Amino acid sequence: MPKLIKSRETDAADVRTVGIPRGLLYYRYHTLWRTFFERLGRTVIVDQPSTRATFAAGDAVSVDECCLASKLYMGHVLALLDGRGLDPAGNPRPVDALFIPSTANFGQLKHFCTKFQALPDLVANSLHERHPRILSFAVDELEAHISLREGLMELGARLGERPRDVKATIHAALHEQQRAEEMLARAQRDLLDSIERLPRAGRPLTILVAAHPYVAHDPFVGGAVEDALRAAGAEVIYADEYDRERAYKKSFEFSATLPWIVNRELVGAILALHDRVDGIVIMSAFPCGPDSMTDDAVQRCVHGKPILALTVDAQSGTAGVETRIESFVAVPYTHLDVHKRQEHTRRGSARKSVEPGMSVHLGGGRILNHHNQRHSTRIRSYPPTLLRFLGYDVCSVFEYGAVSYTHLDVYKGQASTTSTPRRCPPTRSAPPARRSRAMSPPPSRRASISTRARI
Prior knowledge:
Elements: E1 3-5, E2 17-19, H1 26-39, E3 43-45, H2 52-60, H3 68-81, E4 97-99, E5 102-105, H4 114-126, E6 133-135, E7 138-140, H5 148-158, H6 163-196, E8 205-210, H7 213-216, H8 223-231, E9 234-238, H9 244-250, H10 261-273, E10 279-285, H11 289-301, E11 307-312, H12 319-347, E12 352-354, H13 384-389, E13 392-394, H14 405-411
Parallel strand pairs: 1-6, 2-3, 2-4, 4-6, 5-7, 8-9, 8-10, 10-11, 12-13
Helix pairs in contact: 1-6, 2-3, 5-6, 8-12, 9-10
């Protein structure tokens, strides 16, 4: 059986080189982990970025039910076991042990996917013939009452370090992690501010990419999407680089029960950056369970911006992704042109007819609720009577969600029978609003209204 170093009695003081697979939570906590081990005098070994060969190697030792990101992770583990990891100087070096933590949760509504909790056992049992030596500790604040600090303290003790030195190392590592996150958030904020200072006609298209870090920043998984967006002239903003604490708090406007912390942060970033971007691309690695629920809720309940949902699999071709990106980036440009024509018409005191299928963009609340039940806050929606008051002849007003080939023609005002406005299931039945038959359109032509996501 493989040797897992996870008991206090196990002596791991002989471990001098620690291999960290370049996958999954590495893209979120690599600064924390590297600082921790290097300050304790260990050399951190990381393998090369993901390629198709990495995936093929990991797929060969994984079960079919594993997601794409998990199979890539197994490929990175094999690269380290084969001695293909690189030290900080870029030289290939073997590893004494692999660092694979077990991360369950950081508290209530701060869960991680179950694969992160089972990762040490998954690697140990999938590669039992290779007898990997694994450094691991658990983080489970709800059931085992083990915090991140406590887990790192235990790991430092296994490495034979004094508690005082380990405490100082943990403090320094957490400080470096926070500093790295603040730098990313500040750089993103400065980029958005610089774009908004440009004349409106000269601004580049700004697209928000919402995905787990190991999807968005892995060159094999999300590289094709980023390349296609930049080739189309768009400026790419990442949701995972937004301030995590603010995004987590913002996510409660969307759902009070969403359990996964990373998905909460992504949803909160989407809401916070909604008014500052021209479109949203949601990426998921097939078949991710948390994303399958969260992404669908976002497409149904977040309105006012075109949304493209992409599920990345192991197919070798990128032509399909490039085609969808090229079609998608045309939608915000069309939306901006429509908005400019509407503004020009209102200033001239003329009446602009809203064609069937055209979205009306007036700013304000983006999740169009009657009530936010958690905070009892009134969120604005735009009824047809208000649109008439602002100078529109309302034929039919549709809100649009996910953008694909079947949705593009609807947004552009063309007749379509393959796409209908998306609606969220109501959280409670509301009393019917009083309306005048002379002022309101027939029921089939009302503007769609979404309710808060119930997850």
